[in-house]
Each structure stands twice: as C-alpha cells, then as structure tokens.
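Rotation project, supervised by the postdoc (A.L.). Task for the rotation student: set up a whole-complex structure prediction and record inputs and outputs verbatim in this book. Inputs entered:
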Amino acid sequence: MLVLQAIIEGILIGGFYALMAGGLTLVFGVMDIVNFAQGILVVLGAYLSYALFTHLSLDPFLSLLITLPGMFLIGVAVYWSMIRPIKRDRVIMSLLVMFAVGTIIEGILDLIFTSNLVQIHTSYVNSSVKVGSLVFADIYLYAFAMAVVLLAGVYYLLYRTRFGRSLRASMQNPTAARLVGINTDWVSAFTLGIGVALAAAGGMVFGLTNSFDAASSYDLISRVLAIVIFGGFGSLTGALLASVIMLSIEDVVAVVWSPTWSQTMFYVVLVLVLLARPQGLLGRKAVRAQ
Amino acid sequence: MTLHRKRGTGRNGRRIGLWTAGAALLALAAAGCGSSSGSSGSGPITIGVSVSLSGDFSGDGLATKQGYETWAAYQNAHGGILGRQIKLDILSDGSSPTQVATNYQKLITVDHVDFVLGPYSTLLTKPSSVIANRYSKVMLEGIGGGPSVFERGLKNVFDVSASAKYQLITFAKWLAAAHKPEAVAYATMTDPFLQPMLDGARSYLTSKGFTTATYKVYPVETTDFTPIASAIAASQAPVVVLGSMPPDGYAFIQDFIQDKYSPQILIEASGPDQGADFVKAVGSTNTGGIMVPNTWYPGETFYQNSAMVAEYLKLFGSTSGVNNDANNISADVAEAFSAGQVLQQAVDHVGSTDNSKLEAYLHSGASFNSVQGPVKFLADGENGAATPFVFQWQQGALQDVLPLGIGKTVPIMASKPAWGANG
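Outputs recorded:
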C-alpha cells in the first residue's frame, strides 16, 4: 500500500513540477535558450503569492489571476530588453543573460524578504482525504488539477490557435517562419512570457508545500533541468511525462529503500533512456513530427 | 524564540565554482607574504573572523557576526584583553569552503591578526581550522561541532558549545528514564552535524532497549519529503526523532498532519527553534509538545548572559529583525559570544598573545565560563562540560524543560497533544 501511495503521490507532485519544467522546455523549443533563471522565477512566483496572501489575504489559487499576467509581462520585458538586442552568438549570450537575470532577481528577493524562510500557510494545506488506507493531501490534488488545466490550456494554444502555428513554425524553422511573414520576435517574447507565467503557477504550489527562500532556486533548477532533459528539450508532453516518472521513481525508492538513493535511481533511469533515445522521451524530433 | 540553525552542508556547492578564481588569486597573493608575529604590544588586539554574509548561511552568518561584535563591544567596555582594546577584522566568505580558507589565510598572513575565531558551520570550520593549524593559530569556535572537525587530530581547534553527538543526549536520557523501551522512527539529512546528532541519540536509545521502527537518511537537495513522512507514518512509531533543518522540519510536520499521524513524542534538531517562523509554517495550533535541543536560551542565568542580551539589544535590537525582543535572538549570537569569552579568559590567564602558550593552556584541563554554561575541553577539542538543553512548545511558547535542575525548567509535557489541539 505504501508503494501504491508513493506512486500516486509521485504522479500528483509531478504535475506541478511539470508546470516548472514546461516553461523551460517551451522556451528552449522556440528560442534554443536554456533558461537558467527558471528556478528563481519559480521562487519569485512563490514570493508573489506569499505577499498577496500575507498582505491582501488573497488565496494563492486566486492570486494566479494577478501573478500569471504579471509574470507573463516580466518574461516579455526580459526578452524585449535583454535578449532581443543581442545580435551575435545569441544562444550562448542568452545563457549568460538569463543567468544574470536570475542573479539579479535573487538579490532583490533577498533584499526585500531577507534570507528567513517563509511558507504560504492557508487553511487547506494540512487537510487530506482518505481513500481506503491511502491518504492524499488536498493541496496536491488541487495542484495536480490546476497543472492539468494550465498545461491543457498551453497545449490548446500551441495546437489549436494561429499563434500556436506561428510558434511551432518558429520552433521548426525560424528562417522559413520569418520568410512567410511570422514575426518571430513577438513569438519568442510571448513564449518566454508563457514560460515565466508557468513558473509562477509552479511557484505558487511550491510555496504552499515547502518553506522557501531565494536560495531554494538552486535545488529547483537542477531537478527541473533533469526533467526537461529526460522528457526531451522542447516537448511539453515530454516534460509532463518525465515529471511524473521522476517523482514516482524517487518516491518509491525513498519508501522501499532509502531517500539517499532516490535521486540516484532517477539519474540511472535518465542515463539508460538517453542511451536508447539521446533526444529524450519525446525530444525535438518527435515534436517536429507532430 | 529563535535558536540555532547549525548546518554543516548546503546548496553552496553550486556556488563554489564562482569563487574559485578569486580564491586562487587571493591565495597566491597571500602565499607571497611571510608569516608575522602579530600586532604590536600596545595597540589593539586584532581578532580575525570569516562569516557568511551571503549564500546559504547568510542568515546565520549575520547572527554569528553580530555575536562576535556584541562580545567585542562588551569586552572593550570592560577592559578588553590584556588591557588592550579588541579590534575585529571580519571578512565575508559567501558560505563557500574555498573562500573561507582563503579568508583565514589572508587574515593570518596578510592582516597579521593576533587570534582567529571560527566561522559558521561544520562545513566551513573544517577547512578554516586546517589553515589556522598551518600557521600555529588557535581557533576557538562555537558553531562547528560536527565530529569531522575533531577527527583529524588537530590540536588547535576548540569548540565551546556542545558537539553534535551530544546535542540530543539530554533528550535521549530523559526518554530512556521516563518511558519503557518502544519503537522510534528516525530520519535525518546527510549533514556532518545533523546526522551525528541523530546517530548519537539512536545509539544511546538502542543501548537502552528502544527499537528502530525506520531510519531514513535524505540528501540535502531533497525538496519532496512526502514519501519519507509516509514511511514514518506507516510505522506508527510513538516516538519520532528528526535530524532536520527548518525547511524539512516544517515539511515533515505538514506531511504528518496530512497523513493524520500524530506521534506521542516528536523532537526535531532544528525548525521548532525558529520562533515565529515555525509557528507561521506549521500553524499555531500544531506546535504543542514538539521538542528541540539547543545549547542556549535568552533567560538562562549562566555567566554574563543577561549582559550579553542587553548589549546585543543595544547594538542590534531595532535593526536585526528581533524587534527588541530577547526571545528572537539567535543562538548563533550566544555561540559566537561564548567563543570570545573563552578566548578572553584564556589569554588573560596566559598573559600574552602567544598562540602556542594559549593552545597549551586550553589543553590543560582548565575550566572556563560562558553564556552557554561551563567549558572544559577534551583532548580532541570538544567541550566535555556542555549540557544541552531541551525546549518544548507549550501553550504557544517555547519552554525550557530539560535537563532538570539547571536553570528554570517547566514540567515537560510527556505526550504531544493531537494536531490542532495546541497544548
């Protein structure tokens, strides 16, 4: 029963990790940029929800109505002010720019919130539901439902809208996309905006389930990068699948063996998958075939 | 009450690369300079310290710095050392083991300080004590008590606080005396301070007939504690002992509540000592009965404690987030202050700034006083006279409950109330 519970909890928690990883993989797919600031952007999202909850008593899920558009605008602004002006070696330079963005955000968060740990403590974070002998925390159920809705929304945007076609065209061949009249700058700006907005949603759940400070981003970015590599750079579905598999493997190993080996086991699986499929579970080749 | 966060490792490894180049340059610069016998006999006594003002340990590092500054201010107002004023030479190490070594190298070989005091954490004390040893400098410290500091045979490092393996011993002795042997669930972070702390308690309890329901060790990078908490909950152990830092300490409690599992006895190495932050994280009705070990609290009556609290509040009371409330002073302050106290007593007794004479005297079995209680060094530099306290949340306040007969203890709550019942 403990193993079954670990698997289901892994799936539920994997949902909100997919939000964090989804933004990262989307940005890479369109812009060929590994957004090293994604970890701190997740923490920024957590802090925004925390501030709105603490000062305005706004429920964190409701606060997404403010933080999602706000973070979207931050993403667009970062692209327009820092990435678009780069004319040479854009891919490499963008890595440095995003690293700098992350460092600046971390410094500002430390300045405003200090290094004291905080957590969003709503009335429902401690409640749970019992199904037979299994117990599931309500917050993970809510977070999983939210992740499904948001990722479905992004999926709809990608595959059922004109913007999505432009975005996918930019992913497949940016030069050809520009030749047929697609404004790839705006596509890139919107993509970074969406990626950062997804980080806000993931961050909100992270803030509900963990105490955090600005330095929490370092643990997050390594895990999220591993998920994106496992799922395949550029694949939203791959990110979701990889998140669920990663968290389930880790949880099961932690329960039946030892937490010390849980991450190691995940990386063993990751290496085996990459040996068989260097592009990851649903890497770029698969995406371009869709 | 805000007590300690005495971690040994952290996420700082990811930052090490950023410091490496600068550290190498500074080390090269330092290597070009010869050693020195220290400052002149009439000027101020210079004491070098490296503290973590950025990075993972920045919160504790700032408290450590304030502890040293409080001690220097207090001691300067009371005659200094050897009749000379104390001047602190403080460098920041960014929580990096590489940078902390570079800093002590610079303090000793470039700044020519008379003495050095320790940095924050076991992780940083290890490399810095090696540097101090290389230049025959004594290192008195209060916040680096992991066994790995004392296992390398260095004769120059002295910890004025209770070392890691004894931190939970007061609790373990009480449990063995007050309860029949029963199952205990253990979980700890892989940390050079926390894991020995937990293992020390486990070893003692096992020798008294207590069984291990589960024993989980998790890496410092862990962010999802639900499977570990579920495994502990499934064991239904009446006693839970956690070698936690605040983030995991909070998460475990949240997960236990979600799992509808309420152990009779719950003690965490760190987390419940974080005062208002702890209450906010776990909810005010869930704190009752939870215990935490520590080496100091503001109201105790040991040597110069009330003077230290007053001096600290005078210097930092309105600017450091404690809001002039002594209960919000970090134990890091007391641990740093204690190191200074022992240094002053020993140097005044020796009558010179000669570090070799100081080292010999500290090893002589002499006793010292500190705000944390008596200090008497064992051969390896640990404080053999330390008696850790145990605190327990009762009616919304953290109370001193153990050991009996020392300080003003209140009766211990033998069984933790159910979640939500406060108590």
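Student's summary: Confidence is low (pLDDT under 50) at residues 1-38 of chain B.
Supervisor addendum: Residues 13-163+301-376 of chain B form a domain with the Rossmann fold fold (CATH 3.40.50.2300).
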